[in-house]
Amino acid sequence: MNGSKDATLHQRILSEIEGRIVSGEWQPGYRIPFEVDLAMQYGCSRMTVNKVLTQLAKAGLIERRKKSGSFVTQPQAQSAVLEIHDIKAEVQSLNLPYSYSVTKSVSRKIKAEDKLDLPAGGLVKEIVCVHFAGTRPFCLEQRLINLSAVPEAADADFGVLAPGAWLLKQVPWSAAEHKIYAFEAGAEEAAALGIARSTACLVIERRTWSSAGSVTHVRFTYPGDRHALVARFSPAS
């Protein structure tokens, strides 16, 4: 009976601490109560608490520091360098709730500085949205869609489905180009992501094409300490 009771209590402590982290109640850097305090709070042994904290550390939710205690970690997402990544999946991989907000959605003529292969006078859909991990901004998306290649985008409701996911359902792409670089946040990026100006950011720019020509150009801006790129290689045979 005691073993079953200990297992149930272990799960309760784990669920409650994890819930506070995932919900944002305990923000990155927050020091979790010491083992002895948690043991007293839950009326259990320090060993039970220790097992819970060890499990949370293995899951990447907390960092345990000798003599200092346990702290909520800064979540860091990973995406593959050559994949068309899904931001919603990235956020959910962190065990955080995902949401996004569209801040701009307009149809207009192409500009000289736009990075789409269109003739002068061509029409594009410009969309700007912020993706969230929990309550914190996760990524700023700035996208242009070629309306001659995807005319449905002119009247699409991007408040229901994010532009990237919507496009993947509409247009099969045949070629893509990625450009990855470091960038210091300007006023627009800082305001959207809730960071200070000149904060180091990671930028991923992507262009895609289909048989109808250029489809979209999108720029994703991430705070530099919240994202990493991963590539796997196999030796040549």
TrEMBL record:
A molecular function annotated in GO for this UniProt entry is: DNA-binding transcription factor activity
Q: Record's SUPFAM superfamilies?
A: Chorismate lyase-like, Winged helix' DNA-binding domain
Matching Pfam families: GntR, UTRA
Write the record's keywords in alphabetical order, separated by commas. DNA-binding, Transcription, Transcription regulation
Domain HTH gntR-type residues, every copy: 7-75
Task: Answer whether the UniProt record assigns the keyword Membrane to this protein.
Answer: no
Q: Does the keyword Nuclease apply?
A: no
Q: Which InterPro entries match?
A: Bact_HTH_transcr_reg (IPR050679), Chorismate_lyase_/UTRA_dom_sf (IPR028978), His_ut_repres (IPR010248), Tscrpt_reg_HTH_GntR (IPR000524), UTRA (IPR011663), WH-like_DNA-bd_sf (IPR036388), WH_DNA-bd_sf (IPR036390)
**PROSITE patterns tied to this protein:** HTH_GNTR (PS50949)
Q: Name one GO biological process term.
A: L-histidine metabolic process
This chain belongs to which protein, by name? Histidine utilization repressor
Q: Which species is this UniProt entry from?
A: Rhizobium sullae
